[in-house]
Specification:
This protein has 132 residues and is α+β, with helices and mostly antiparallel strands. It has one domain. The protein is 47% helix and 12% strand. It has five helices and four strands. It has a two-stranded antiparallel sheet with strand order 1-2. Strands 3-4 form a two-stranded antiparallel sheet. Helix 1 packs parallel to helix 5. It is extended and about 55 Å long.
């Protein structure tokens, strides 16, 4: 799972595995239990997208850190108000999106795009020099 402390969702697991199993990253993570499908994590991996750095912290500390980032000068959007007509239109659009079943070509295209993104991550990791 991926979380920014505000939203949690399922991420692209091949990308996660490409990162944590990379030859320059894996040795740094071996002492930390980041969890698996079978076992809960003791630590979370935090990736700072601004500084482009990664950290490991105990789960409770990482969760607290992520939750507090939203109180540090980041303005949250104001709630959106809909009229009943606008709400009905929005629900109808959402239903149409949910009723769309992707074709095999669409699925294969998405898989190919995901594979390209994972390959780009691996290439980027290969180009990095370890700075401690």
């Amino acid at each position: 799972m991926v979380s920014d402390g505000l939203v949690t969702f399922t991420g692209l697991w091949p990308g996660y595995l490409a990162y944590v199993q990379h030859k320059s990253v894996h040795p740094l993570l071996t002492e930390f239990n980041l969890g698996s499908s079978e076992n809960p994590a003791d630590y979370h991996l935090i990736i700072d997208l601004v500084e482009r750095r990664a950290f490991v912290a105990p789960c409770k500390v990482a969760d607290r850190f992520q939750a507090t980032q939203w109180n540090q000068g980041v303005k949250l959007e104001k709630p959106v108000s809909f009229s009943s007509e606008e709400m009905e239109e929005w629900v109808e659009q959402l239903e149409q999106q949910l009723l769309h079943f992707p074709s095999m070509d669409e699925l294969m295209s998405q898989i190919a795009e995901d594979d390209k993104l994972v390959a780009a991550l691996e290439h980027w990791l290969d180009d990095q020099t370890l700075s401690l």
